[in-house]
């Protein structure tokens, strides 16, 4: 039995997006449909909902979850970065609101995709298991030492990136690195267990870097942000929850640029974060940051 994913900042998202009856809302990262169910409830039978996920299995399950629901509910297996193309294909108008709740879910964490070094699993890390993305193992064994160091530095902000990349290359000469444990061991071998006084596991940033690189997470985010006004109607809203500083920086910077170029206004001067109560109930919410933007009304 898989642990259901607990939606983070649910009330805060609803407040920000403010879904009204008969509205049209898009969830670009629907997963198990926690946020989606609350939005669908608010828009009612005459509303429209488009839910995307890059994980095909998740979309199949969602179709079952929402099968009895009234109203126009469309669920599509797609990268959210392609939402404009999906809307064109389905002949949809611009939406009243868009939600992105980035990263992976607790359900995926349990699906042995090698997202975490807490368990020994095959190094995969893809959300989209059916597409043609390389796995994390392909990346770890395929990039040059310099390329690996750059990925670890750029997407993990890891200052020991060169030393770690060197060690990975030494290890893979002996044997292809295929599991989370082999990778985590190589990192510990490079920097030592006491690295950063044990505040975080030495492999944390390397795993984050690989996941971002494998799934092109920052490119996807940049693309959808550059197309907001083609996706959302004037007066419509965007809510984005991010879980690490690289993503949050992109959202913050793009929202500022959009405000400067009169594309609309920022709804959250500071990011909305989880209350202590929510963090107690769902520790994953600790690093969540929610930002909102409203597209200018013409
Ligand atoms: C944190 S979960 C979303 C949880 C959901 N909001 C809920 O309340 O149940 C993130 C989901 O985004 C999906 N995802 C990640 N990157 C994606 C992308 N580029 N396009 C579409 N879905 C993506 C993952 O497969 C995962 O199912």
Automatic annotation (TrEMBL):
The record's principal subcellular location, in a coarse class, is cytoplasm
Q: Which GO terms describe its cellular component?
A: cytoplasm
Gene3D superfamilies according to UniProt: Putative methyltransferase TM0872, insert domain (1.10.150.170), Vaccinia Virus protein VP39 (3.40.50.150)
Sorted alphabetically, the Gene Ontology BP terms of this entry are:
rRNA base methylation
Class in the EC hierarchy, top level: transferase
Q: What positions belong to coiled-coil segments?
A: none
Give the EC number. 2.1.1.199
Q: Which GO terms describe its molecular function?
A: rRNA (cytosine-N4-)-methyltransferase activity
Entry keywords, A to Z: Cytoplasm, Methyltransferase, rRNA processing, S-adenosyl-L-methionine, Transferase
Q: Which reaction does it catalyse?
A: cytidine(1402) in 16S rRNA + S-adenosyl-L-methionine = N(4)-methylcytidine(1402) in 16S rRNA + S-adenosyl-L-homocysteine + H(+)
Indicate the transmembrane segments per the record: none
SUPFAM superfamilies named in the record: Putative methyltransferase TM0872, insert domain, S-adenosyl-L-methionine-dependent methyltransferases
Q: Where in the cell is it found?
A: Cytoplasm
Q: Which residues bind S-adenosyl-L-methionine?
A: 33-35, 53, 80, 101, 108
What HAMAP family has UniProt attached to this entry?
16SrRNA_methyltr_H (MF_01007)
Q: What does this protein do?
A: Specifically methylates the N4 position of cytidine in position 1402 (C1402) of 16S rRNA.
Give the family from UniProt: Belongs to the methyltransferase superfamily. RsmH family.
Q: What is this protein called?
A: Ribosomal RNA small subunit methyltransferase H
State the organism of origin: Candidatus Wolfebacteria bacterium GW2011_GWA2_47_9b
